[in-house]
Amino acid sequence: AKGIATPNIDELGRNGLKLTNFYAAASVCTPSRAGLLTGRQASRMGMEHVFMYDSHDGMPSSEITIAEQLKQAGYHTALVGKWHLGHLDRYMPWNQGFDEFYGVPFSNDMPNFFFYENQEIIYQPVDQRYLTQRYTTRALDFIERNAHNRFFLYLAHSMPHVPLYVSPEFEGKSAAGLYGDVVQELDWSTGEIIARLRSLGILDNTIVIFTSDNGPWLAMGNHGGSAGALRDGKGSAFEGGQRVPTVMHWPAGIAHAREVDDIASLLDLMPTFSALAGVPLPDNRPIDGRDISALISSTSPAPGKFYYQGFFRDDLVAVRDGDWKLKLPRKGYPRFLDALLKMDAYSHGLLLFNLADDPGEQHNIAGEHPGRVEQLRADLLAKQAEIDADRTRTLFLLSL
Q1: Is the confidence at residue 117, as pLDDT, over 90?
Q2: What would you report as the CA-atom Rg of the chain, rounded to the nearest whole angstrom?
Q3: How many CB atoms lie within 10 A of CB 28?
Q4: Inter-residue long-range contacts of 299-304, CB under 8 Å, 24+ positions, other chains counted
Q5: pLDDT value of position 364
Q6: Is the distance from CB of 12 to CB of 210 less than 8 angstroms?
Q7: How many angstroms separate the CA atoms of 306 and 304, rounded?
Q8: What gap in Å lies between CA 225 and CA 230, rounded to an integer?
Q9: 108-137 in b/e burial notation, b at 16+ Cβ within 10 A?
């Protein structure tokens, strides 16, 4: 980043793993968070959209989350921050394995934006300048109270989702405007968490992961962030939409600090945490993520694939296998979204990229590699057929 100082996040990467080919589970927040918590493509749940403040649906209660898995091994569980998987009682965190919830039900740009203290709504206006500090204080409190227990803390900051807010202590502190100030406050929060874990003597055996649920919202200009050299951003199946900066820190479990180029994603967290806790995965449903604990603890390569879920579509739209990426033609995409998401091409034909040579996805080489195209297309269609057979419901977004 230019003009943004993130010493605490950088230190996590220097002393742990920097995952350079790590993907969010989807290109927008609701399906991405569903994938993170369950290890399953959100389209299996009928979730390809963002829930609005008046949506009367949510992630099915039959889904099994990281929190529910870890509770089987005696973990205390908490969510601090943004949920955004359904705001009606039956979909809320307390029904999905979380012992504690302190935060908000959806994005900070939506109406009826109130805090929850567990199952109680706090009907007071939220001063968003202090959201990051408020979440951090509660996260530190949970860690302090559970220093001698096994615990799982899902700290889901609202920032840097727009509208951006920063506390007076960090206003004007970066060289990158309000967005930079917000990110530097998030770095401060990360530093507070690390310092508390260290002071309690539990940092070495705590896995800390810093990641994101989707790429930058390019339509928001200098409030939306940047994907650097990657193509497009939020809402897109190009790399800028789902490939996200990710670091992992775990002194007791990471053999030595290194940069990891293997493909991994938010979908892998649920099966990985389950394996590390000794909890078997559910045997009554497909799990799309994979256990990457061996990748974390050793330098052994772990070849993997990644399937990109469409936004406003109930199907997969691209696949990455090693350095090769195939993206299916895009036609009929709602045109109004171009202005909203600033995607650089409304429609396109079949695309093939070699991401090792062309990380910015600028050179379509489908015509040069017909065999590779057919192989990846067959793989993608087979995965789609498997998901279609597993899908059990239709999503209803808005109340009547």
Answers
A1: yes
A2: 20
A3: 26
A4: 299/255, 299/258, 301/262, 302/262, 302/264, 303/262, 303/263, 304/262, 304/263, 304/264
A5: 98
A6: yes
A7: 7
A8: 12
A9: bebeebebbeeeeeeeeebebbbbbbbbbe
Tell me, what's the pLDDT at 398? Answer: 45
* Tokens at 130, concatenated: 């202090």
Indicate the helix (H) or strand (E) that contains 354. strand 351-354
Report the C-alpha gap between 216 and 317 in whole angstroms.
Answer: 19
Cα(20)–Cα(258) distance, rounded to whole angstroms? 11
Catalytic site includes residue 84? yes
Average confidence score pLDDT of the chain = 93
**Cα 254–Cα 188–Cα 205 angle in degrees, nearest 5:** 25
Catalytic annotation on 76? no
Which residue in 49, 76, 84, 157 is the catalytic one?
84
Mean pLDDT of 8-12: 98
Q: Which two tokens stand for residue 308?
A: 């990109």
- Residue 394 structure tokens: 């239709």
Q: How far is CA 250 from the centre of its chain?
A: 19
- pTM (predicted TM-score): 0.94
Helix 269-277 vs helix 29-38: crossing angle, to nearest 10:
20
Q: Say which DSSP state 316 is in.
A: E
**Residue 45 token pair:** 């749940």
Cα torsion 282, 283, 289, 293: sign: positive
pLDDT at 301: 67
Distance CA(376)–CA(372), nearest Å, equals 6
Predicted confidence (pLDDT) per residue in 103-114, tens digit: 999 999 999 999
Q: Which residue has the tokens 């409030």?
A: 223
| Percentage with pLDDT > 90 across the chain | 86
Collapse the DSSP code of 378 into the 3-class scheme (helix H, G, I; strand E, B; otherwise coil) and give the result.
helix
Q: What does the DSSP assignment read for 184-252?
A: HHHHHHHHHHHHHHHHTT-STT--EEE--SS---GGGGGGS---TTSS--TT-SSHHHHB--EEEE-TT
